[in-house]
Amino acid sequence: MTSPSPFQQFFDDCVGNWVTERTYHYLTQQEVERSHTEFVIQPVNRDRKAQVLADNQYSDQPDLDSLPGYHLEFATVSDKGDRVNQSLNMLFVPQQQDGALVIGDYLRDRAYEESRPIVSHFQFNLANRELLMTTTYTRVVSVDSITLINPKLRIRKILSYRRPDANDPLQEVVLVGFGVEQKVES
Protein backbone atom coordinates (compact mmCIF):
# COMPACT_ATOMS: atom_id res chain seq x y z
CA MET A 1 0.00 0.00 0.00
CA THR A 2 1.34 3.45 -0.92
CA SER A 3 1.56 5.97 1.89
CA PRO A 4 -0.09 9.38 1.33
CA SER A 5 2.01 12.31 0.16
CA PRO A 6 3.20 14.68 2.94
CA PHE A 7 0.62 17.18 1.64
CA GLN A 8 -2.26 14.69 1.97
CA GLN A 9 -0.87 13.31 5.25
CA PHE A 10 -1.02 16.81 6.77
CA PHE A 11 -4.74 17.01 6.04
CA ASP A 12 -5.37 13.42 7.15
CA ASP A 13 -3.69 14.22 10.48
CA CYS A 14 -5.85 17.33 10.93
CA VAL A 15 -9.11 15.34 10.93
CA GLY A 16 -10.55 14.95 14.42
CA ASN A 17 -11.40 16.89 17.56
CA TRP A 18 -9.08 19.68 18.65
CA VAL A 19 -8.80 22.07 21.59
CA THR A 20 -6.87 25.31 21.34
CA GLU A 21 -5.77 28.04 23.67
CA ARG A 22 -5.03 31.30 21.84
CA THR A 23 -3.82 34.76 22.67
CA TYR A 24 -4.78 37.69 20.44
CA HIS A 25 -2.94 41.00 20.49
CA TYR A 26 -5.09 43.84 19.09
CA LEU A 27 -2.43 46.38 18.23
CA THR A 28 -4.77 49.25 17.32
CA GLN A 29 -6.47 49.09 20.76
CA GLN A 30 -3.42 47.86 22.72
CA GLU A 31 -5.53 44.97 24.07
CA VAL A 32 -4.73 41.33 24.73
CA GLU A 33 -7.45 38.68 24.69
CA ARG A 34 -7.27 34.99 25.48
CA SER A 35 -9.68 32.40 24.16
CA HIS A 36 -10.48 28.70 24.35
CA THR A 37 -11.77 26.96 21.23
CA GLU A 38 -13.03 23.44 20.66
CA PHE A 39 -13.33 22.38 17.06
CA VAL A 40 -14.03 19.37 14.89
CA ILE A 41 -12.62 18.74 11.42
CA GLN A 42 -14.30 16.11 9.23
CA PRO A 43 -13.70 15.16 5.59
CA VAL A 44 -16.46 16.07 3.16
CA ASN A 45 -17.84 14.05 0.28
CA ARG A 46 -17.60 14.80 -3.43
CA ASP A 47 -21.00 16.56 -3.51
CA ARG A 48 -20.01 19.01 -0.77
CA LYS A 49 -16.68 19.69 -2.49
CA ALA A 50 -18.57 20.45 -5.70
CA GLN A 51 -20.87 22.78 -3.75
CA VAL A 52 -17.89 24.74 -2.36
CA LEU A 53 -16.61 25.15 -5.94
CA ALA A 54 -20.06 26.31 -7.09
CA ASP A 55 -20.50 28.70 -4.14
CA ASN A 56 -17.25 30.39 -5.16
CA GLN A 57 -18.00 30.31 -8.91
CA TYR A 58 -14.75 28.36 -9.29
CA SER A 59 -14.07 26.18 -12.30
CA ASP A 60 -14.88 22.45 -12.11
CA GLN A 61 -11.94 20.29 -11.10
CA PRO A 62 -11.29 17.05 -13.00
CA ASP A 63 -10.08 15.03 -9.99
CA LEU A 64 -12.35 16.31 -7.23
CA ASP A 65 -11.93 13.17 -5.13
CA SER A 66 -8.20 13.82 -4.68
CA LEU A 67 -8.64 17.37 -3.35
CA PRO A 68 -8.54 17.83 0.44
CA GLY A 69 -11.95 19.04 1.57
CA TYR A 70 -13.27 19.45 5.12
CA HIS A 71 -16.16 20.53 7.28
CA LEU A 72 -15.06 22.63 10.26
CA GLU A 73 -17.19 23.40 13.31
CA PHE A 74 -15.90 25.43 16.22
CA ALA A 75 -17.01 27.06 19.45
CA THR A 76 -14.88 29.80 21.01
CA VAL A 77 -15.16 31.45 24.41
CA SER A 78 -13.00 34.51 25.13
CA ASP A 79 -11.74 35.49 28.56
CA LYS A 80 -14.30 38.35 28.36
CA GLY A 81 -17.12 35.83 27.99
CA ASP A 82 -17.74 36.45 24.28
CA ARG A 83 -18.90 33.34 22.42
CA VAL A 84 -18.58 32.53 18.72
CA ASN A 85 -19.90 29.38 17.05
CA GLN A 86 -19.38 28.76 13.36
CA SER A 87 -19.30 26.00 10.80
CA LEU A 88 -18.01 26.03 7.26
CA ASN A 89 -16.82 23.85 4.42
CA MET A 90 -13.42 24.25 2.81
CA LEU A 91 -11.51 22.89 -0.16
CA PHE A 92 -7.83 23.07 -1.10
CA VAL A 93 -7.01 23.17 -4.82
CA PRO A 94 -3.27 22.73 -5.49
CA GLN A 95 -2.12 24.47 -8.68
CA GLN A 96 1.65 24.04 -8.73
CA GLN A 97 4.64 22.72 -6.85
CA ASP A 98 7.78 24.83 -6.58
CA GLY A 99 10.48 22.80 -4.82
CA ALA A 100 9.18 22.06 -1.32
CA LEU A 101 6.14 24.36 -1.73
CA VAL A 102 2.70 23.23 -2.87
CA ILE A 103 0.80 26.37 -3.96
CA GLY A 104 -2.89 26.79 -4.73
CA ASP A 105 -6.30 28.15 -3.80
CA TYR A 106 -8.17 27.68 -0.53
CA LEU A 107 -11.96 27.94 -0.93
CA ARG A 108 -14.57 28.33 1.79
CA ASP A 109 -18.33 28.51 1.60
CA ARG A 110 -18.21 30.98 4.50
CA ALA A 111 -15.28 33.18 5.50
CA TYR A 112 -14.31 33.93 9.11
CA GLU A 113 -14.22 37.73 8.84
CA GLU A 114 -17.09 38.10 6.39
CA SER A 115 -20.01 35.72 6.05
CA ARG A 116 -19.67 34.90 2.36
CA PRO A 117 -17.92 32.41 0.08
CA ILE A 118 -14.29 33.34 -0.48
CA VAL A 119 -11.26 32.17 -2.44
CA SER A 120 -7.93 32.57 -0.64
CA HIS A 121 -4.44 31.38 -1.44
CA PHE A 122 -2.34 28.77 0.31
CA GLN A 123 1.13 27.40 0.27
CA PHE A 124 2.17 24.22 2.02
CA ASN A 125 5.81 23.65 2.91
CA LEU A 126 6.59 19.94 2.59
CA ALA A 127 9.80 20.34 4.61
CA ASN A 128 8.33 21.77 7.82
CA ARG A 129 4.63 20.87 7.42
CA GLU A 130 3.45 24.47 7.57
CA LEU A 131 0.23 25.50 5.85
CA LEU A 132 0.17 29.24 5.15
CA MET A 133 -3.19 30.71 4.11
CA THR A 134 -3.60 34.30 2.91
CA THR A 135 -7.07 35.82 2.68
CA THR A 136 -7.87 39.29 1.41
CA TYR A 137 -10.98 40.62 3.14
CA THR A 138 -12.61 44.02 2.68
CA ARG A 139 -10.62 45.76 5.45
CA VAL A 140 -7.78 43.37 6.34
CA VAL A 141 -5.51 40.73 4.87
CA SER A 142 -5.20 37.70 7.13
CA VAL A 143 -2.10 35.49 7.01
CA ASP A 144 -2.81 32.30 8.95
CA SER A 145 -0.13 29.68 9.62
CA ILE A 146 -0.71 26.14 10.91
CA THR A 147 2.40 24.08 11.61
CA LEU A 148 1.83 20.40 12.32
CA ILE A 149 4.42 19.42 14.92
CA ASN A 150 3.05 15.87 15.17
CA PRO A 151 -0.39 14.31 14.52
CA LYS A 152 -1.66 15.57 17.90
CA LEU A 153 -0.06 19.02 18.13
CA ARG A 154 -0.32 22.09 15.91
CA ILE A 155 1.04 25.60 16.38
CA ARG A 156 -1.06 28.44 15.01
CA LYS A 157 0.00 31.97 14.14
CA ILE A 158 -2.35 34.63 12.75
CA LEU A 159 -1.30 38.04 11.43
CA SER A 160 -3.93 40.47 10.21
CA TYR A 161 -2.77 43.50 8.27
CA ARG A 162 -4.75 46.59 7.41
CA ARG A 163 -5.57 46.03 3.75
CA PRO A 164 -3.17 48.14 1.69
CA ASP A 165 -3.92 49.87 -1.58
CA ALA A 166 -3.55 47.67 -4.67
CA ASN A 167 0.04 46.59 -5.31
CA ASP A 168 1.30 48.02 -1.98
CA PRO A 169 3.01 45.59 0.43
CA LEU A 170 1.45 44.32 3.64
CA GLN A 171 2.78 46.60 6.32
CA GLU A 172 0.44 47.68 9.13
CA VAL A 173 -0.27 44.79 11.51
CA VAL A 174 -3.56 45.22 13.40
CA LEU A 175 -3.83 41.77 15.04
CA VAL A 176 -1.39 39.06 16.07
CA GLY A 177 -2.66 35.71 17.34
CA PHE A 178 -0.82 32.67 18.69
CA GLY A 179 -2.26 29.31 19.59
CA VAL A 180 -1.42 25.81 20.72
CA GLU A 181 -3.82 23.24 19.27
CA GLN A 182 -4.02 19.73 20.69
CA LYS A 183 -5.99 16.80 19.30
CA VAL A 184 -8.28 15.14 21.83
CA GLU A 185 -9.98 11.77 21.75
CA SER A 186 -13.67 11.98 20.89
Could you tell me how far the N terminus lies from the C terminus, measured between alpha carbons in angstroms? 28 Å
- Strand order, biggest sheet? 1-2-3-4-5-6-7-8-9-10
Helicity range of the residues? 10-25%
Mean pLDDT: 94
CATH fold name:
Lipocalin
Kindly provide the radius of gyration, computed on alpha-carbon positions and rounded to a whole number of angstroms: 16 Å
What does this entry show, briefly?
The protein has 186 residues and is mainly beta. It has two helices and ten strands, in the order αββαββββββββ.
Kindly describe this structure:
- The longest helix is centred in the first third of the chain and has 10 residues, at 46-55.
- Strands 1-2-3-4-5-6-7-8-9-10 form a ten-stranded antiparallel β-barrel.
- 10% of the residues lie in helices and 57% in strands.
- It has a single domain (6-184), classed as Lipocalin.
- It is globular and about 45 Å long.
- It has helices at residues 6-14, 46-55; strands spanning 16-26, 31-43, 69-78, 83-98, 101-108, 118-125, 130-136, 140-150, 153-162, 173-184.
- β6 and β7 form a beta hairpin.
- 17% of the residues are buried.
- The mean pLDDT is 94.
- By secondary structure, it is mainly beta.
- The two termini are 28 Å apart.
